[in-house]
From TrEMBL:
<protein>
    <recommendedName>
        <fullName>Probable membrane transporter protein</fullName>
    </recommendedName>
</protein>
<feature type="transmembrane region" description="Helical">
    <location>
        <begin position="251"/>
        <end position="269"/>
    </location>
</feature>
<feature type="transmembrane region" description="Helical">
    <location>
        <begin position="108"/>
        <end position="127"/>
    </location>
</feature>
<comment type="similarity">
    <text>Belongs to the 4-toluene sulfonate uptake permease (TSUP) (TC 2.A.102) family.</text>
</comment>
<dbReference type="InterPro" id="IPR002781">
    <property type="entry name" value="TM_pro_TauE-like"/>
</dbReference>
<keyword id="KW-0812">Transmembrane</keyword>
<keyword id="KW-0472">Membrane</keyword>
<feature type="transmembrane region" description="Helical">
    <location>
        <begin position="7"/>
        <end position="30"/>
    </location>
</feature>
<feature type="transmembrane region" description="Helical">
    <location>
        <begin position="50"/>
        <end position="70"/>
    </location>
</feature>
<keyword id="KW-1003">Cell membrane</keyword>
<dbReference type="Pfam" id="PF01925">
    <property type="entry name" value="TauE"/>
</dbReference>
<feature type="transmembrane region" description="Helical">
    <location>
        <begin position="191"/>
        <end position="209"/>
    </location>
</feature>
<feature type="transmembrane region" description="Helical">
    <location>
        <begin position="157"/>
        <end position="179"/>
    </location>
</feature>
<feature type="transmembrane region" description="Helical">
    <location>
        <begin position="82"/>
        <end position="102"/>
    </location>
</feature>
<dbReference type="GO" id="GO:0005886">
    <property type="term" value="C:plasma membrane"/>
</dbReference>
<keyword id="KW-1133">Transmembrane helix</keyword>
<dbReference type="InterPro" id="IPR051598">
    <property type="entry name" value="TSUP/Inactive_protease-like"/>
</dbReference>
Length: 273
């Protein structure tokens, strides 16, 4: 039964994660806690082990999705490297800070985090890009698979600092960082949505490598669970990339943000009672 649960979690999280550029950790972590701690279907589970195991899985999800998006020219490698300067050390620091979680504090903080992400996804289409970032001296260009040139502003200091904060949440919650990074690139830095999704998956790959290193050192990875989830995530990520190129992801984002809002409220209430 536990194997079936892991396969479903891995495949579903990777499909959704690759589809909207969030990596899937935001689904994996609460699922592992729910089935492992609340219902005892997954042995040896703690908040730290759910976070560490998720981080390892997101390496596969991030790599698979990134390779797929590179083929469709949806990854801005050159400009994405600027964000990696902040997100990699941030993820390592976050993985260390996760050791201080108790089950109640994890439920409370993760619940608040889910509600925050839900709100960001809800308002991302109505927030205008910051004009300061769109100055000529910060403008970068990227040519997509259709030959269309996109220009957007990436001030190096702002990019590194913001991605560092995202990196800390990556290691802290085992979520890959895409849940924050994708809307951040769209809202603040004016990335085209399809380029933001692809570039976000590249950053998820590298941030997961960094946070995984920290969690492996602390012994926070359940390897049997991780291997099953990795196999399921590999196929799920490939499916997510294919779906992304054929459908409007706004519908998926709508369902995702409502799910996160409900789950966030549930975790907060659970931590208080």
């Amino acid at each position: 039964m536990s194997y079936i649960v892991l396969i479903i979690i891995g495949a579903f999280s990777a499909i959704i994660g690759a589809l909207v550029g969030i990596g899937g950790g935001i689904i994996i972590v609460p699922s592992l806690v729910y089935f492992g701690i609340d219902h005892h279907l997954l042995s040896g589970m703690t908040p730290q082990k759910a976070i560490g195991t998720s981080s390892v899985i997101l390496i596969t999800t991030g790599l698979t999705a990134t390779l797929g998006y590179l083929k469709t020219k949806q990854v801005d490698v050159k400009n994405g490297l600027i964000f990696l300067i902040g997100i990699i050390p941030g993820a390592l620091i976050g993985s260390y800070l996760s050791r201080f979680f108790t089950l109640d504090s994890f439920n409370l903080l993760f619940g608040i985090f889910l509600i925050l992400i839900s709100i960001i996804l809800m308002i991302r289409n109505v927030i205008k890009p910051i004009k300061y970032f769109q100055q000529d001296k910060y403008m970068k260009s990227f040519v997509d698979r259709y030959g269309k040139e996109h220009k957007y502003g990436i001030p190096p200091v702002a990019a590194v600092l913001s991605s560092f904060v995202v990196g800390v949440t990556t290691g802290l919650f085992g979520i890959g960082g895409g849940a924050l990074m994708t809307p951040l690139m769209i809202i603040v830095f004016k990335f085209p949505p399809h380029v933001a999704v692809g570039t976000s998956m590249m950053m998820i790959f590298f941030s997961s490598l960094s946070s995984s290193a920290g969690h492996i050192i602390q012994g926070n990875v359940l390897w049997v669970h991780a291997i099953i989830l990795i196999i399921a995530s590999y196929f799920g990520a490939k499916i997510g990339v294919k779906i992304n190129s054929k459908m409007n992801s706004d519908t998926v984002v709508l369902v995702l943000r409502l799910t996160m809002l409900i789950l966030g409220i549930y975790l907060i209430i659970k931590s208080i009672l």
